[in-house]
Amino acid sequence: MSTPHYKKVRKHLSDNCPILKPVIDRVGPCLLAPRGEDPFTLLVRCVIGQQISTKAADSIYNKLIAQLGTPTVPLAKLSKFTEAKYKACGISGPKQRTLRAVIDHLKANPKLLPSIPDLADDAVREQLVAIKGIGPWTVDMLLIFGLGRPDVLPVGDYGIKVALKKLFNMRKLPDAERITKVAKPWVPHRSVAMWYLWRSLEPQKVAE
Questions:
Q1: In this model, does residue 131 exceed pLDDT 90?
Q2: What angle do CA 93, 94, 100 make, to 5 degrees?
Q3: How many Å is the maximal CA-CA distance in the chain?
Q4: CA 165 to chain centre
Q5: 39-146, superfamily in CATH?
Q6: Which of 9, 87, 89, 149 could disulfide-link to 64, CB 3.0 to 4.6 Å?
Q7: 3-33+152-200 in CATH: which number?
């Protein structure tokens, strides 16, 4: 997305949500951009990122790339990975099983991945959650960070729940229904709103 586009999005979010406006003003320009990698590499990244911090996920992914000796993740190479190689990268047993399930599913459905960029968000979800170990959160991360879809609402993301609880002075972490209700004014730019919510959790820099 272009900078002029993001300026319009920021104005839309600020005008429609006074609570989000101070976060946008503090954080500044949105730096959200699709990774531009192939769908399989993106999916592997999202599986690795399940239930761990971005820093930890990046570390594990970089070890995987080093093991593979390639800039991205080729399905053919990863399909030959042993448990020992996975463990050397720091990939847990459950995630190993998910990646193997992904590989098996894609081998059985070779047209699926090439079609992903052309599918609507709901169609991507329907296709991918059929794979054991791939849930809504993983697909949402793929849609936002991999495919650059503009209006994704990851209701299962813990960080989003924490940010909303803090910003909206909620007594407890919001459920999916309440998150959807709060996010209604952000349509059709909820992905950017999510990016600002994540940024709101980062420590504020103290002026010297």
A1: yes
A2: 90
A3: 58
A4: 20
A5: Hypothetical protein; domain 2 (1.10.340.30)
A6: 89
A7: 1.10.1670.40
* 202: DSSP letter: S
By C-alpha distance, which of 120, 130, 200, 192 is closest to 159? 200
Structure tokens at 44: 């592997």
Query: How do the domains of the chain map onto residue ranges?
Result: 3-33+152-200, 39-146
Q: Which residues contact 127 (CB under 8 A, 6 or more apart)?
A: 112, 116, 119
Instruction: Render pLDDT for 161-193 as a digit per residue (tens, 0 to 9).
Output: 999 999 999 999 999 999 999 999 999 999 999
Domains 3-33+152-200 and 39-146 share a fold: no
Distance of CA 2 to the CA centre of its chain: 20
Three-state secondary structure of 120-185: CHHHHHHHHCCCCCCCHHHHHHHHHHHCCCCCCCCCCCHHHHHHHHHHCCCCCCCCHHHHHHHCHH
Could you read off the pLDDT of 65-78 as tens digits, one per residue? 999 999 999 999 99
DSSP code per residue over 59-127: HHHHHHHHHHTSSS--HHHHTT--HHHHHHHT--HHHHHHHHHHHHHHHH-TTHHHHGGGS-HHHHHHH
pLDDT tens for residues 60-112? Answer: 999 999 999 999 999 999 999 999 999 999 999 999 999 999 999 999 999 99
